[in-house]
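Please decode residue identities from the backbone states below.
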């Protein structure tokens, strides 16, 4: 299995995990020239931008640790573009979540980081 198909499988697992918890998936792999967001979702009143990280094992570190400050900034820039593109008002609640998958174990961190401009 190549890296992209492993990533897609992880994102599909994360999407199913979120759906089972009542989260509505709006988009997968939203891309613009600034980067990509794995999942754009609605969780209650929140618009949620979710990064998914998969590791077969934690031998090389936690998948959650792979969401660096630089990656967070990229996600925020893409989220800003998404909000402008779809006319999402600034008053709408926004959240940045991270889902780490290590083997078959899923960890969901809500509000994993603040907006980083």
């Amino acid at each position: 299995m190549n890296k992209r198909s492993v990533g897609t499988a992880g994102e599909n697992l994360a999407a199913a995990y979120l759906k089972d918890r009542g989260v509505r998936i709006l988009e997968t792999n939203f891309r613009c020239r600034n980067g990509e967001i794995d999942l754009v979702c609605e969780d209650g009143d929140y618009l949620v931008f979710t990064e998914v990280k998969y590791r077969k094992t934690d031998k090389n570190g936690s998948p959650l640790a792979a969401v660096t400050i630089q990656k967070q900034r990229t996600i925020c820039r893409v989220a800003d573009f998404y909000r402008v593109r779809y006319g999402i008002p600034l008053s709408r609640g926004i959240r940045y979540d991270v889902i780490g998958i290590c083997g078959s174990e899923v960890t969901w961190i809500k509000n994993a980081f603040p907006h980083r401009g």
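Observation: Helices lie at 3-20, 69-85.
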